[in-house]
Amino acid sequence: MFGRLWAAAALLAVAGGAAAQEQATPAPAAAATIQVGGVTLTACQPDLGGFCGTIGRPLDPAGKLPGTVTIGFEFYPHRDAGQPAEGVVLAQEGGPGYSSTGTREGYLRLFEPLRGRRDVLLVDKRGTGLSDPIQCQALQEAGEFVPAAIAACAKQLGPAAWMYGTTLAADDVAAVLDALQIGEVDYYGDSYGTWFGQVFAQRHPDRLRTIVLDSAYPTLGLSPWFETEWATARDGFEQVCRRSPSCRALGGRSLDRIEKLVAALRAKPGKAEAPDGDGNTVGIAVDAPTLFLTMNSAGGSPTFYRDLDAAARAWLDAKDPAPLHRLMAEAVSWNTPGSDPTAFSTALYVSVVCSDYPQLFRADASRSERRRQLMRATAQKQATDRDVYAPFTIAEVDTSPHKWERRDLCLDWPAPPKGVVPGTAADPKAAFPNVPVLVLSGDIDSVTSPIEGLETARLFPDATYVQVRNLTHITAITDQAIFVPPKGADATGCVAPIVLNFVRSGGDAGDTSCTQRIRPIRTVPAFAIKAADVAPATADAGNAGTDADLRLAAATAETVGDVLARYFVNSGGKGVGLRGGTFTFEASDTGHSFTLDQIRWAEDLAVSGTIRWDQSTGDVTADLTLAGVATGTLALAWNDRDMDAVARMTGMIDGRAVAAERIAP
User: pTM here?
Assistant: First the structure.
């Protein structure tokens, strides 16, 4: 469960039976308020058609602690005001710590084809977003789980530290449904939202018509060592290499090359500064623990799968550290929470982990005894399964920076109040409901592994398990983030239509064969300091360019691919090139447009111009100007969805007509 932080909100930073329930009275577009059940909602997202509301809940329903917590939510009425709603979609975000409302655009885009007759409800779990987010300032601003900051947060919260677990949050959501007089819902949860969905299903089975669990991990039988996540990450690099033509052509094993890099960094660690995905220069430790973080981040972003093999070869063979340093810097920043608790509450994350997840020590033990129990458990693991994280040691994993699932996270958390039993969010003796369940797993998702997804599906008597080839974490939202339908059109891509069909039909996933036809991650063939070191593109009909021109064309294609890959590790819409220059990008109706200004992937070739990525069709086109070792213009085009996509390049370099092709970057 390393990096369980990943959720749809992180990925999108770049970017019920109607008869059984009261339905909202559809409101005109200009309405300031609407009445839903017993609650008056106020317009709050006018461009999206949303209305906001709150209810109050006791902080401690058992009555032992005073205080209340506000539960905030957004409601999006169905668009066909002349017809009653056919149901309500309830979407829940993950983390834990993210707000569901923070991913509103992703959820609304996913369920857009159903919104004519279905309402959408987004409830922020207690301690997040609109629901009184927990803020422990030192912990929130630390950027990492510093033990002293965790201890300070524990002292600040006191017994209330145990009032933010999944069971209480699930009951809050049921209370919102009661207030809105909603009976059944079609539930969609991603990442921790799948854990939440399992708990909700046990506690409130009568509120569910269908359940979709995207990138799931089981509430029962989870190991505190989370071995399957690392196995998926490690083996994922080998799978990605075998599926990528340029990596497969190298022969040998990607893992052998990576293991050589681990050994080199272990023998001679260092420090460096490099640009992260947003172009900010950050300091990094260049060592084995940081490499573990980088590899383990691949489950949340395909950029790490794409770049690491070539970055390892650049480091080992070409003595070129820039690609590896940048990838490590991107991993460090990608795993750093922001300072805004309404976007992500670090304290809520800690509270849920300590309340609900399995630990290697007893929460009711003294702090000193907890440490002894943890040391004994670690020593036993070292003795019986020392290669659990191979090629890394247990110690290297434990000292990895920004490690979300550190086993000492809860050592200084308060002892649970009397009657509170940690790790019992789900009841192993209680049945899961006989409700249609769809469980989705990306087959290279190391955040919530495919094995965990299958184990989750086995908890339910009526579950369909679908493994999606070549996708990482959060399959349906990722599908929508990459494959954006034109305005007013039905869903494109693969996974999103499966989800929609499951909800429409009340439990039939339909034809899922497309999940085996999603194109593989195309790895970097090789990083190059000079454009002349790039393998030449293949000449096409009409080419008058030289071998050097064909190498420049190939280097230009790599420059374009490198910029597009930064999309998946970027949160602000701008960044820098590997060896200089800048780029920006912005959303369009059907995808994204990128503007390049003197981007240098190779240090002697500066590329400027525009890239248009039509995510509704997969078409990528670029019009570029070259400067540096040569001058000229090139146009590139390919379809990014093609299994074996080929980029075609035409233009002029130093006055010579160039027509060439090569594998798409």
Answer: 0.94
- Distance in angstroms (rounded) separating the CA atoms of residues 30 and 150: 46
Mean pLDDT (the chain, rounded): 93
478 — pLDDT class (breaks 50, 70, 90)? confident
CA distance 499 to 156: 42
Q: Which amino acid is at 41?
A: L
Dist. CA 173–CA 167, nearest whole Å: 10
| pLDDT digits 0-9 by tens, 194-236 | 999 999 999 999 999 999 999 999 999 999 999 999 999 999 9
How far, CA to CA in Å, does 301 sit from each of 201, 323, 330, 357, 452? 30, 16, 10, 24, 19
Q: Which helix (H) or strand (E) holds 310?
A: helix 302-317
Q: Residue 65: beta bridge partners?
A: none
Q: Which amino acid is at 505?
A: S
Amino acid at 659: A
Closest of 22, 166, 134 to residue 87, by C-alpha: 22
Q: What stretches of 491-570 adopt beta strand conformation (E)?
A: 538-539
Angle at 207 between CA 201 and CA 210, to 5 degrees: 70
CA distances (Å), 546 to each of 220, 541, 550, 609, 661, in order? 63, 14, 6, 23, 14
Residue 452 is inside which H or E element, if any? helix 450-457
Per the document, the length of the chain is 665
- Tell me the residue ranges of DSSP E strands in 129-258: 185-190, 208-214
What percent of the chain shows pLDDT beyond 70? 94
Distance of CA 215 to the CA centre of its chain: 10
Q: Cα–Cα distances in Å, from 250 out to 243, 256, 382, 483, 644?
A: 12, 12, 35, 31, 17
* 167-189 confidence digits (pLDDT tens): 999 999 999 999 999 999 999 99
